[in-house]
């Protein structure tokens, strides 16, 4: 009986986490359309992401397995673990673009 109760708690936590992620994603979309998507502009791979404080960060990728984040208009940036995971995915996608 206890095992079933524990499983139900785990399922509810996962459901809450998924709901929270969707809500965050929907909120992010209001602030920045096409965020976390690699776009090609005049042969240069670029993307826009939102940091933890919902600042829009313009990123560019030069095919060197790195990301350049434009911070000219910002004092600092705050990146979450999810931001870092998204940047990693974007770097990998940009590498595929530049290597084809």
Query: Which H/E pattern describes the elements?
Result: HEEEEH
Q: Count helical runs.
A: 2
Sheet of most strands:
4 strands, antiparallel
Uncertain regions spanning at least 5 consecutive residues: none
Strand order of the largest sheet: 1-2-3-4
> Overall mean pLDDT score?
82
Query: Count of DSSP E strands?
Result: 4
Strand content: 15-25%
How far the N terminus sits from the C terminus, by CA atoms, comes to: 56 Å
Give an overview of the whole structure:
The chain has 100 residues and is an alpha+beta fold. The chain has two domains: 1-31; 32-100, no CATH class. It has two helices and four strands. It has a four-stranded antiparallel sheet, covered by helices on one side. Strand 2 (44-50) and strand 3 (56-61) form a beta hairpin. The longest helix has 30 residues, at 2-31. It is elongated. The model has no long low-confidence stretch (mean pLDDT 82).
Topology:
Elements lengths: L1 H30 L7 E3 L2 E7 L5 E6 L6 E3 L10 H19 L1
Antiparallel strand pairs: 1-2, 2-3, 3-4
Short account of what is shown:
This protein is an alpha+beta fold.
What distinguishing features does this structure have?
4-stranded antiparallel beta sheet; 49% helix; 19% strand; alpha+beta; 2 domains; 4 strands; 100 residues
